[in-house]
Amino acid sequence: MTAIERAESAGVDLDAVVDPYRPLGPSIAVAIVDTDGAPIAATTADAVPTDACGGTIPGGPLAGCRVLVWGEASAIGLQQAVADSLAAALAVASAAHADADARLAATARLIESELAHGRRLQRSFVSLEPPDVPGFEIAAHYEAAREIGGDFFELFRLRRRGRPLSVVIADVTGKGIAAALLMAFARPLLHAAIDHTTGPAEALDRTNRILIEERRSSLFITALAARLDVRTGDVCIANAGHEPPLIVRADGTQIEFLVGSGALLGAYGDLDLPIVRTELQPGDLLLLYTDGVTDARSPSGERFEETRLLDTVEATRGGTAADIVSAVCGAVGRFQATVEPADDITIVAIRRLPGA
Q1: In 10 A of CB 145, how many CB atoms?
Q2: What's residue 350's pLDDT?
């Protein structure tokens, strides 16, 4: 790297250093030369005289380069003072910039380390290992669009008669650190509300009231809570502005969206959520997902949309829960190609086993 390149990398404009001396005319001329004596900035195109006063730059990226000053004989004392002061100033300026770069690099490494730790911690929040539910198979996938994200989901057995399966899938509007912080606040609220209410709608309503009272944010949460009676296959769903789940029947009938939802969590005081009920017969599958699936973008800017989701699920119809999740993940990945994810992606599939 040349002296000029080192100066530029250190954020030092050498021309700006010598420019103030140009008006001084014949009394003082200034040149900065590299370690080989070649000028890299000067107030004049004249050759540097051999008797020019000089000051060596003692440190920083320009260490070893020299500041040379010459002119009228009557100003020799001034010339040496200028040479020495410029040499010292250049050393301090370039070193300070290098120190700033080092501090920025160290800060970036620290932030990267903290985000990696946050990512590991956040992944421990989600139910990547689903609970064992005899007669059912469960598969899930979660991937944040950034280091940490705003999606979350949870599957757990309730401690009440029949040990029903509770399912929650939610998406904080936006992504990144702010969304992750709101997720970390809301997740335990939802879990506790589900544990201490009579059903999904009441649980979402209780969570919403707390968010309205305690939250100071422009972000909101779409959330879907469901309760599965593992003895009968009955499913009770409450949807607060979330993507409608899919029901895939084993009898080959058309795949359908389970529509019916209310307002997002944290937006309004009264959710007024409708209850959606269905029954998983042997072989039926329930698919839940966040909008990171349908909002995925191709290199040409197209959205993945619900149509491609339906086509993907139809092509894998009759497969296991893991087959469906894998197929959707693969289809979204191929569709996005090299495009960065539009949002966090979460997919949960619950299938009642044939004969169960």
Answers
A1: 18
A2: 97
pLDDT < 50 positions in the chain: 100, 111, 115, 117, 122
Question: CA–CA separation, 231 vs 151, rounded Å?
Answer: 29
Total structural domains in the chain? Answer: 2
- The answer as to whether 238 is a domain residue is yes
pTM of the model: 0.67
Domain range spanning residue 339?
Answer: 126-352
Nearest to 87 by CA among 112, 113, 53, 137: 53
- Three-state DSSP state, 155: strand
CA distances from 53 to 48, 64, 239 (A): 10, 16, 81
119-124 long-range contacts, CB within 8 A, separation 24+: 119/144, 119/147, 119/148, 122/148, 122/149, 122/180, 122/183, 122/184
